[in-house]
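Field: sequence (string)
Field: structure_tokens (string)

Example rows 1 and 2, in order.
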Amino acid sequence: AVEDLNSCLRRREEILPSDSRSIAETHYQLGVALGFNLRFDDAVKALESSIGVLSSRVTNLKDKKESVDPSKKDDTFYTREKEIEEIEKLIPEIKEKIADTRDLQEETLKKIREMHLEWLLKRRQMDPLRKK
């Protein structure tokens, strides 16, 4: 999944405007996939990139310089203000995902340390040269 998402991200970055929500979504999905693959630091970077794209979009919307979002083009109820509000609700959710990813990283490292310690203790107990 990570390779596919990286490929998708490269393509989207080549053809879409830099403030495209599709690019932000791909960064987010990549972050989730990287987290599942225990690549926590890369996951956080991808999630932060998603926030960066969305923040850029908000700035462009406020300055009325945003790129046209094809999915919103025919939406008669679309307004810049609505999109800004929508994005401003998404950003804290992504920040929460970053915090969750960091927590999961800590939990995983703790579990690995515990397993390693158990292994060392068992190995020591089984050592034939160990004095009893």
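Row 2 begins here:
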Amino acid sequence: MTFVQKWQQTGIRNRFIFYVFDKVIFEKNKYFNQHSVLGKAARTMLLQWESEDPKVRALWQQMNQWVYDGFETTYRNLGVTFDKLYYESNTYLLGKETIEKGLAQNVFYQKDDQSVWIDLTAAKLDHKIVLRSDGTSVYITQDIGTAQLRYNDFGTNRMVYVVADEQNYHFQVLFETMKRLGEPYADGLYHLSYGMVDLPTGKMKSREGTVVDADDLMAEVINEARKNAEERGEIIELTPAAREAIIQKIGMAALKFFIIKVQPKKRMIFDPKESVDMQGQTGPYVQNAYVRIQSILRKAGELSEQITDYTKLQAAEKEMINKLYAYPNSIAIAAQNYDPSEIANYCYDLAKSFHKFYHDFSILRAENEGAKQFRLLLSKATANVLSSGMKLLGIEMPDRM
């Protein structure tokens, strides 16, 4: 093996290329900010924006609206809603006000060029700029203002930031800054850092144009769910609208569950085809257990809440009861550790146990009426817990699939 071949296989080549690339970008950014006509125009426009220049604000609002409309479409497709939205454009002034107060208290310091910084080296961090020399804000300025506004609005003692692990350092800086400012909620700030998602073909890299947007990924997963549904033929007799509604639920369950089942901090590979596998550790697998129970309950008709003459529980039935009793504890662990994968994996384990129970024991044709009623009620309780758990994950359950 030649040196060049070894160099290429070990990845040193890629690291070197990215090192050179980053140096070039750094120098280009430095030139852009200090000497470029466009850079000067951008800085001038930012000053005009913060001075509420009508023309600049109108252009900014128009462009922002395009983005917000796109966000709204994506979130609507995901079934995500927000109780309150905080816009950085509405919080940066509070951030600047907080920094000015901190400057007077010597929390921050000012350089000769009038830029404002904070020294966090005692916390094993670095010096961080919080206001530019021209007085305009930076990202952390807005984050400081947003944290203040959230506390003013809700008086909360805990704020959880759900942001990718690429921003770990940023939040260390933000949280340490809020502690230096003496904010009463500073110790309650928490960064729920999550690992990045890769595709089977490799890492998604913006530099190489291999990033897949959320809308395209949703469409791909739903298409996989549609193909699976057509192959099974279980809902073919339904109207097109009813079929599509079920396929949407299956597709979104596949997408959400496949991601949520992995502990947040871990990097993961998302495989659209694997995510809809009815036999794998997937959302559709859990949904299938629920659908199977609904089918059983429909066939059973009216269900009595009374159980008579059934005291000799089978080991598998006791196991199902124990799993159902474990549900509240699973929620508590998930909340304590900020880890929804705990609930996802609980739902999968419960569904797996029910599928086995259904295979090993007759429910509608049980050995006696007492056994039948008990197993029906056990099945109903299982369906209720599965539905509740998946709802906590933002996943809907279909009645057919």
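free_text_note (row 2): Strands lie at 109-110, 116-119, 127-131, 159-164, 189-194, 197-198, 268-269.
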